[in-house]
Amino acid sequence: MSGTKKEKVQEFNIFNCLSCEGEPEFEKEALLEHLRTVHGIDTSVGLMGTREMLMHADGQGFCKYLFQWKLDCGVIFTQAICRRK
């Protein structure tokens, strides 16, 4: 619609650990630290497992994604992303 104010898109890249009570939320570096300290995973050698896309949405001026990661060690977390187009 012409003449309407374009909404600002808030970009984010957030992870939630589904293997922990309360499903705590992290940014990437904090998630890696959580995986090292709480789950005992050596993140320096990379993470082994699978990633499944649960949701993808395109909107006017943005894209949103939701992934679920299942690590070979059994830890599961989600990653929610929003980016401007």
Please give a structural write-up.
The chain is mainly beta and 85 residues long. 12% of the residues lie in helices and 45% in strands. The chain is built from one helix and five strands, in the order ββαβββ. A five-stranded antiparallel β-sheet has the order 2-1-5-4-3.
Walk me through the topology:
Elements: E1 12-17, E2 25-26, H1 28-37, E3 49-59, E4 62-71, E5 76-84
Antiparallel strand pairs: 1-2, 1-5, 3-4, 4-5
Can you tag this structure with a few keywords?
45% strand; 1 helix; five-stranded antiparallel sheet; mainly beta; 12% helix; 85 residues; single chain
Give a quick summary of the entry:
The protein is mainly beta and 85 residues long.
Oligomer: single chain
Q: How are strands sequenced across the largest beta sheet?
A: 2-1-5-4-3
Order of helices and strands: EEHEEE
Give the fraction of residues assigned to helices.
10-25%
End-to-end distance: 18 Å
Number of helices: 1
Structural class: mainly beta
Q: Largest sheet, if any? A: 5 strands, antiparallel
Kindly state the mean pLDDT as a whole number?
91
Please count the beta strands (DSSP E, at least 2 residues each): 5
Shape descriptor: elongated
Radius of gyration over all CA atoms, rounded: 16 Å
Strand content: 35-45%
The unreliable regions are none
